[in-house]
């Protein structure tokens, strides 16, 4: 005790490895680029200019930026799948896929506190909590859908590289380009909604918990109460002491 207040000793824990942090920020950047260029491609602006029409190539530049960003997005996504097998325990795929009753119990606890704003026992997680991990799992599925539908739309236009041709079967599976484009557009709105909720929850947890939630994605470190480790509390991302 100090001045009538309890003193919390914190342990500095390296949670997010550099490859995960690079993936995260690169992914955030290209998603913003894809959303902005995607909106323009779907509903182009009427740009007024005194230049000759043959000197204008606005849509071409926007589409090229969209395509470059899509390639970065795709291969960055493939890298994250790979890192889910070779990275540390906080990056492992077990953090995203429910494999036990404890996972579902923690999801419900987090849901009660974060969404329903009910009081309850805080469930400590060093990496992702179960609810966040499960939502990220669906986000990864949305990444896959966006890649498949996007390259499916691009396949018929690509005259150069062989890679987009691998997705030439996709339009037929969706009944044509019209519905395929709709799915691609709806998935974009999922990313927009996810981004808003994600940013809110990151700031919320950083303010409420004070464990460096925001700064951890910059330097990789979080600060966890020492008594969590000493008492061997139920921390699913950390091994308990014997």
Q: Which architecture of the domain at 23-43 and 56-201 does the CATH hierarchy give at level 2?
A: Up-down Bundle
Per DSSP, the total helix count is: 8
Multimeric organization: single chain
**Proportion of helical residues:** 55-70%
Number of strands: 2
Estimate what percentage of residues fall within beta strands: under 5%
CATH homologous superfamily heading of the domain at 23-43 and 56-201? Transmembrane di-heme cytochromes, Chain C
Task: Encode the helix/strand succession as letters.
Answer: EHHHHHHHEH
Helix vs. strand class? mainly alpha
Tertiary shape: elongated
Mean pLDDT: 83
CATH class (first level) name of the domain at 23-43 and 56-201: Mainly Alpha
Largest sheet: 2 strands, antiparallel
Q: Report the end-to-end length measured between terminal Cα atoms.
A: 28 Å
| Low-pLDDT windows of residues | 233-242
Kindly describe this structure.
The chain is mainly α. The chain has a domain at 23-43 and 56-201: Fumarate Reductase Cytochrome B subunit (Up-down Bundle), CATH 1.20.950. 58% of the residues lie in helices and 4% in strands. The chain is built from eight helices and two strands, in the order E-H-H-H-H-H-H-H-E-H. It has helices at 18-42, 58-86, 101-114, 130-155, 170-173, 177-209, 216-219, 226-230; strands at residues 10-14, 221-225. A two-stranded antiparallel ribbon has the order 1-2. Helix 1 (18-42) runs antiparallel to helix 2. It starts with 9 loop residues before the first strand and ends in a 12-residue tail after the last helix. Mean pLDDT is 83; it is low at 233-242.
């Amino acid at each position: 005790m100090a001045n009538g207040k309890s003193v919390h000793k914190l342990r500095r824990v390296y949670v997010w490895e550099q490859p995960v942090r690079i993936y995260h920020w690169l992914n955030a950047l290209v998603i913003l680029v894809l959303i902005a260029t995607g909106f323009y491609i779907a509903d182009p602006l009427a740009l007024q200019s005194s230049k000759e029409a043959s000197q204008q190539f606005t849509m071409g530049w926007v589409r090229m930026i969209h395509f470059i960003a899509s390639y970065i997005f795709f291969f960055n996504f493939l890298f994250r799948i790979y890192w889910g097998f070779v990275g540390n325990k906080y990056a492992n795929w077990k953090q995203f896929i429910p494999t036990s009753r404890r996972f579902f119990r923690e999801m419900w606890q987090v849901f009660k506190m974060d969404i329903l704003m009910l009081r309850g026992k805080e469930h400590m997680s060093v990496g992702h909590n179960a609810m966040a991990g499960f939502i990220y799992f669906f986000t990864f599925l949305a990444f896959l859908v966006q890649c498949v539908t996007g390259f499916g739309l691009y396949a018929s236009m690509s005259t150069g590289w062989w890679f987009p041709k691998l997705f030439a079967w996709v339009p037929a599976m969706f009944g044509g380009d019209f519905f395929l484009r709709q799915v691609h557009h709806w998935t974009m709105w999922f990313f927009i909604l996810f981004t808003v909720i994600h940013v809110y929850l990151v700031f919320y947890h950083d303010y409420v918990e004070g464990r460096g939630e925001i700064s951890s994605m910059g330097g990789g470190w979080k600060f966890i109460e020492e008594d969590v480790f000493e008492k061997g509390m139920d921390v699913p991302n950390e091994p308990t002491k014997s």
